[in-house]
Design brief:
The chain has helices at residues 3-14, 20-32, 34-52, 61-70, 86-114, 120-135, 147-153, 242-257, and strands spanning 142-143, 174-182, 185-194, 197-205, 211-219, 222-229, 232-238. With 259 residues, the protein is of the alpha+beta class.
């Protein structure tokens, strides 16, 4: 089994939905392929994170009461009327419909506000990858402060050539790089340092239009900044303070534009 055959099976394998024969082949492949093994570990970590986060919510008690009050109460022992009172019942119907519409709009607003942004799951995945790189001694596959050593190291390992800048003059020295797996594909992780703080810069191709750096909400104490340019998407993550991380991003982007 090669990587092309293995990658579509990692998801079903993680969910326990793979046939026995395929499980044996995939497990054998995972023992010998670090890239696919990393993809499997990342998927497991993401599933664990999603289970921990509160992605489901209960309706507030106030909203429950509003829904109950908008619904008609069941009639008890109501004598049968000889004729239908169209005016009275039409007023009741329009009032009930108005109340139901208001309730639906309120529910829609609550769901919209509670729904995470499209970038939030990816941001959580990136933070998880950053934390794993610090914990599992897999911070770097290639250790070098020379961009002309780090950049060629990715040749043949990725289907693109990452933009690599050395910011030693700006006190953000490059210290190495590694392969990682994010957003369903293999990506380049460039590793920089600011004093004792590690900065992971994830890079991969994208069809996104060029965009300026955007600061995302901090996740688990880590700051994230995202931008795209020249057909590449960039995600910087670190426990470095937001101001200095933005300085790093601006210096890196400026160096990229000069190339």
């Amino acid at each position: 089994m090669n990587c092309h055959q293995a990658k579509p099976l990692i998801g079903p394998y993680s969910d326990g939905e793979l046939e026995a024969a395929a499980i044996l082949e995939l497990e054998q492949h995972l023992k010998t392929c670090s890239a696919c093994a990393l993809a499997y570990r990342n998927l497991q970590s993401l599933k664990k994170t999603l289970k921990q986060d509160a992605l489901y919510f209960s309706a507030p008690e106030e909203l429950r009461e509003r829904i109950k009050s908008a619904l008609p109460s069941p009639a008890k022992n109501v004598p049968q009327r000889p004729a239908w009172n169209w005016a009275v019942n039409w007023n009741w119907l329009t009032t009930a419909l108005s109340g139901a519409t208001a309730v639906c709009l309120a529910l829609l607003l609550v769901v919209t506000l509670a729904r995470p942004s499209s970038e939030e799951p990816l941001a959580r995945e990136i933070v998880s990858s950053h934390i794993r790189s610090l914990m599992s001694n897999h911070l770097m596959d290639v250790v070098s402060t020379d961009q002309h050593t780090v950049k060629p190291w990715f040749n043949g390992k990725l289907d693109f050539s990452p933009l690599v800048n050395d910011l030693a003059a700006q006190e953000f020295p490059l210290i190495g790089g590694r392969l990682d797996y994010l957003d369903g594909r293999s990506v380049a992780a460039l590793v920089f340092q600011r004093h004792k703080h590690i900065i992971n810069l994830f890079v991969w191709p994208s069809k996104e239009t060029d965009s300026k750096p955007v600061v995302l909400a901090a996740q688990q104490g880590y700051h994230l900044i995202h931008w795209s340019e020249r057909g590449m998407v960039f995600w910087a993550v670190s426990d470095l303070n937001e101001k200095e991380l933005m300085e790093f991003v601006q210096d890196y982007a400026a160096g990229t534009q000069l190339k």
